[in-house]
Amino acid sequence: MYRRMSESRSMVAVKIGGRFFANRKLxxxxxxxxxxxxxxxxxxxxxxxGNEVTELSDKLGLxxxxxxxxxITTPEEMDIVEAVLSGGVNKRLVRLFRxxxxxxxxxxxxxxxxxxxxxxxxxxxxNTRTGKIVKVNxxxxxxxxxxxxxxxxxxxxxxxxGKALNINADTVAFHLAESLVVxxxxxxSDVPGINRNGEIMDVLKTSEIEREISEGVITGGMIPKVRAxxxxxxxxxSGIVIGDYRVRGDLERLIKGKRGTLxx
Length: 264
Ligand SMILES: Nc1ncnc2c1ncn2[C@@H]1O[C@H](COP(=O)(O)OP(=O)(O)OP(=O)(O)O)[C@@H](O)[C@H]1O
Ligand SMILES: [Mg+2]
Description:
Elements: E1 10-16, H1 18-21, H2 24-37, E2 41-47, H3 50-59, E3 66-67, E4 70-71, H4 75-99, E5 104-107, E6 115-123, E7 126-136, H5 139-146, E8 150-153, E9 156-158, E10 164-166, H6 169-180, E11 184-189, E12 195-196, E13 199-200, E14 203-204, H7 206-214, H8 222-234, E15 239-244, H9 250-255, E16 261-263
Parallel strand pairs: 1-2, 1-11, 2-8, 5-8, 11-15, 14-16
Antiparallel strand pairs: 3-4, 6-7, 9-10, 12-13, 15-16
The structure holds adenosine-5'-triphosphate (ATP) and magnesium ion (MG).
Magnesium ion (MG) binds at residues 17, 48, 50, 170, 221.
């Protein structure tokens, strides 16, 4: 387990979703709070951005394909995914965080082989560039932590032979949280938590997850999030929360379990 000798702050992995951080004002408030709470917590940020990938794909006339809420990336789409997520989105976040006084560094999975993967093969008739993670190597993240930096991680990576891969960002968040043994894993999305019959659940029990998926309560992009949460719990991470960010103070409330859905 990684612990810096002189480090007293607890580690928190925060995965932020594309429609949340598209709102400049909310993102600015979030960054201010991230900076303020950095005295108390060592943050690792993982980001998505599927909506921006879809916008550019649309313009280029490519039809996105999803299975269980996960994008099945075609080889043509892979270039767009890498350019949007690990270029535009990642650097925009890094620039904003730095402007707020956070010593942010932007990386993807291929950098230092933080996480590398393998294609899922043929899915929905597509020889896909979507992959699963086969190896996590958090050394570069630890080096950054030890030197006071906050890593901002995008979810593209590489196969061992150098081919580009797209990995679902919720899955990346789980693997990094597990390998670093973080104290909290927070998913910030565009919904205040998991909705069941019109109500946001305070707690979702892991035993209910597959049933809620099969009954159509949990669909689309929420599926990889709850599955990643289930895996994270099995991996020994306890404080897992799915929620949204509306006003200053929400990040602290999410971390302290006073907002969003807690996965137990
Ligand atoms: N039971 C549910 N409760 C809440 N949201 C749900 C539920 N089932 C499906 N969803 C959908 O999940 C979406 C969130 O996942 P989505 O993948 O779209 O965003 P994200 O993961 O936050 O962002 P990104 O994919 O860019 O990382 C919500 O906008 C909502 O439409
Ligand atoms: Mg998503």
